[in-house]
Amino acid sequence: MTAYVIRRLLYAIPILLGVNVITFALFFLVNTPDDMARMQLGVKRVTPEAIANWKQERGYDKPLLYNSAAAGAGKLTHTIFYEKSLRMFVFDFGRADDGRDIAREIRVRMGPSLAVAVPAFFVGLLVYITFALGFAFFRATYLDFWGVVICVAAMSISSMFYIIGGQYLVGKLWHLVPISGFSGGLDALRFILLPAAIGVIGSFGASTRMYRTFFLEEISKDYVRTARAKGLSEITVLFRHVLKNAMIPILTGVVVAIPFLFIGGLITESFFGIPGLGSYTIDAINSQDFAVVRSMVFIGSLLYIAGLLLTDISYTLVDPRVRLS
Fold it and tell me: What total of structural domains would you count in the chain?
């Protein structure tokens, strides 16, 4: 197990380097610092002096990859690639265009994102698996048929409908919760109830239908017929055998999603005015704050790799036949 984890961590280094290089190329080769300056300054006929000042204030006045004017190691370290890309490996994200420290903003905004995403994730997982097991138990009946119809209909509805409809109905008409905003402490519960509930409802159709497929696939296997032949009840077969053996495909999607709870929901946080990482990313895109966008892309890549590693490790917990060498 230890050797496997170390090997996977070593594999992650070139992957992160590759993502870093591709991100750097997209931001600085396709879209040069001069182009960034023109977009930020927002005028058609910007002067070369204004561009130079903008680049100097944000550290974009250095060469991209190699600084021939510097001495020694400075030829590589006094470059945009080193200062804006490689330093992210030690979580030095620099400063946003408004001057605020990006790492500090990430630490502060992580809390509100988790406050919304974690309840929606675990409550949703319980709801989806419960309904999927129910549909599998009543398979080939009218309950199963209409359950699938409802799931397909829910999948066809945009998440924007749930957000706007929930804000109008629950927040504006019924006045049960605030429409938007966020607060600390126990008062935060009023602000996270609606976005968390919408997060569960918005994913109900796709997740429940997918888990139902996993359970039906297991039900058709020989070990289930053997369990029934031994006299076990259908409920016992579902919970003791089918649910356990269906956990591997379920974990594939669930564990990978856990690290992304830190990122938050981009659309949900923006519409509900939650000061999390999702709204932080959307605001950075709208304001063309490239430093923040690069940092969030790097964090997303890091979390995705961590999720894949957690997925492989979790397989051994639910299936002893899986062995990691």
Answer: 2
